[in-house]
């Protein structure tokens, strides 16, 4: 059986144990000879590594596990690199969310000004990762990227390293599909969706359950309830308050615009005033995560190290891990499985620019994605996407040219920002907050 060396870049992420479990339960079909956790934060990675070692002991005790901060050690002869970097960690995410809210603008980590700030932090670390892979990894390497904001990362890496073997993906559509499956009381894997848009900016046009079109049934449900299942035992109902609000808020879009089912992130662009009104500028989603998942996992590790009886298996799960492994297996074995991924448009959506990085269904082969042709899209959706695509292009221009003006254009053009003057205040505050991370803007 062919075996693979796989690296998780951002090994200190609290999502890492779930990804590792998803990998190892597939060991009879996707066998690893070495698993590497690679991070620039050794202390954090070592803490998460406590749980990862537990996963390995349970599911594949013979597997070689390496934890390193050395890119040469990590990438040498690697077949797959799963990238899930969070540059600046949650302290910077908090700034991404709170600075815009100070000016009455949506504060979110991947959408609006927060997403642009995060993008400027992430572009060059991703380019650096690609360069390490080009230098040390096997020539046939694949980077499967989860690092956010994925739309900006995809656009920047395609521009700066066009020959890189990188596939940008996002688990948000899959999480919505999970909710759809709970609403329909079926298995998520029995659903097939059609979709178009940019990452965190798109719409489901068709949903089929074992070949049967259930789109209208879902539209009627979502227009009344959002993406919230009515099953009282649903795991979704136990999510954080901000996610409950996000899933429920889809009803306001779906009941107004009847063509398609929205990605939940469309709330930040179409319901920005409502989102700001319901946000606490002093306690954002970043605080929820730091006080919730982050605290739970690192407290559990501390207790485990202290010899206490701790159930580490509760940190093993998640659709996040399942999806990235499914995509990697399709790349590894030329399975031609159909997933939503980010690709250069090149006519996939006929009336969008050819160089837009769109999110559409594609068949994943060992040579990369083969996108499904979507055809033309209606004026309303085309207009929204072209505006957001221009924002993303401008922020990549700003990073490459070190241009303050291009950054200001991007902030001003964002649908979440009401005016140039507000955009400038947010940008100037973001420059101060991101001094250690952004390229210098002139």
TrEMBL record:
Keyword Repeat: no
Stretches assigned to the Glycosyl hydrolase family 4 C-terminal domain: 195-417
InterPro entries: Glyco_hydro_4 (IPR001088), Glyco_hydro_4_C (IPR022616), Lactate_DH/Glyco_Ohase_4_C (IPR015955), NAD(P)-bd_dom_sf (IPR036291)
Keywords assigned by UniProt, alphabetized: Cobalt, Glycosidase, Hydrolase, Iron, Manganese, Metal-binding, NAD, Nickel
Gene Ontology terms, MF aspect: hydrolase activity, hydrolyzing O-glycosyl compounds; metal ion binding; oxidoreductase activity, acting on the CH-OH group of donors, NAD or NADP as acceptor
Residues that, per the record, bind Mn(2+): 170, 200
Cofactor(s) it depends on: NAD(+)
CDD domains according to UniProt: GH4_GlvA_pagL_like
List of catalytic residues: 171, 265
Site (Increases basicity of active site Tyr): residue numbering on this chain: 109
CC cofactor note: Binds 1 NAD(+) per subunit.
GO biological process: carbohydrate metabolic process
Entry binding sites for substrate: 93, 148, 285
Subunit structure: Homotetramer.
Family: Belongs to the glycosyl hydrolase 4 family.
Name under which the protein is recorded: 6-phospho-alpha-glucosidase
Taxonomic lineage: Bacteria, Bacillati, Bacillota, Clostridia, Eubacteriales
């Amino acid at each position: 059986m062919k075996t693979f060396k796989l690296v998780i870049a951002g090994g200190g992420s609290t999502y890492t144990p779930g990804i590792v479990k998803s990998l190892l339960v597939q060991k009879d079909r996707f066998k690893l000879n070495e698993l590497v956790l690679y991070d620039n934060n050794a202390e954090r990675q070592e803490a998460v590594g406590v749980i990862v070692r537990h996963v390995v002991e349970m599911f594949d005790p013979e597997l070689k596990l390496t934890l390193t901060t050395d890119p040469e050690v990590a990438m040498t002869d690697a077949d797959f690199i799963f990238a899930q970097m969070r540059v600046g960690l949650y302290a910077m995410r908090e700034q991404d969310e709170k600075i815009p809210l100070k000016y009455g603008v949506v504060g979110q980590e991947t959408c609006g000004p927060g997403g642009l700030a995060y993008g400027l932090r992430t572009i060059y670390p991703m380019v650096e990762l690609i360069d390490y892979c080009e230098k040390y990894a096997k020539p046939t390497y694949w980077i499967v990227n989860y690092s956010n904001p994925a739309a900006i990362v995809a656009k920047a890496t395609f521009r700066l390293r066009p020959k890189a073997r990188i596939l940008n993906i996002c688990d948000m559509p899959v999480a919505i599909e999970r909710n759809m499956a709970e609403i329909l009381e079926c298995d998520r894997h029995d659903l097939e969706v059609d979709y178009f848009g940019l990452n965190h900016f798109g719409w489901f046009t068709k949903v089929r359950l074992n070949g049967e079109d259930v789109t209208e049934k879902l539209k009627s449900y979502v227009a009344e309830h959002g993406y919230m299942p009515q099953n009282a035992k649903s795991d979704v109902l136990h999510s954080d308050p901000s996610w409950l609000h996000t899933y429920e808020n889809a009803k306001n879009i779906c009941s107004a615009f009847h063509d398609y089912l929205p990605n939940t992130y469309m709330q930040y662009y179409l319901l920005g005033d409502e989102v700001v009104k319901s946000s606490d500028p002093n306690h954002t989603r970043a605080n929820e995560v730091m006080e919730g998942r982050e605290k739970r996992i690192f407290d559990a590790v501390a207790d485990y190290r202290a010899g206490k009886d701790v159930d580490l298996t509760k940190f093993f799960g998640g659709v996040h891990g399942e999806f990235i492994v499914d995509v990697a297996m399709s790349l590894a074995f030329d399975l031609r499985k159909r997933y939503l991924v980010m690709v250069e448009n090149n006519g996939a959506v006929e009336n969008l620019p050819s160089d837009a990085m769109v999110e559409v269904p594609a068949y994943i082969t060992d040579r990369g994605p083969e996108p499904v042709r979507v055809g033309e899209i209606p004026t309303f959706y085309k207009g929204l996407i072209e505006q957001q695509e221009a924002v993303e292009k401008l922020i990549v221009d700003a990073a490459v040219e070190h241009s303050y003006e291009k950054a200001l254009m991007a902030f001003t053009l964002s649908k979440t920002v009401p005016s140039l003057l507000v955009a400038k205040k947010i940008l100037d505050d973001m420059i101060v907050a991101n001094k250690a991370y952004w390229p210098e803007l002139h």
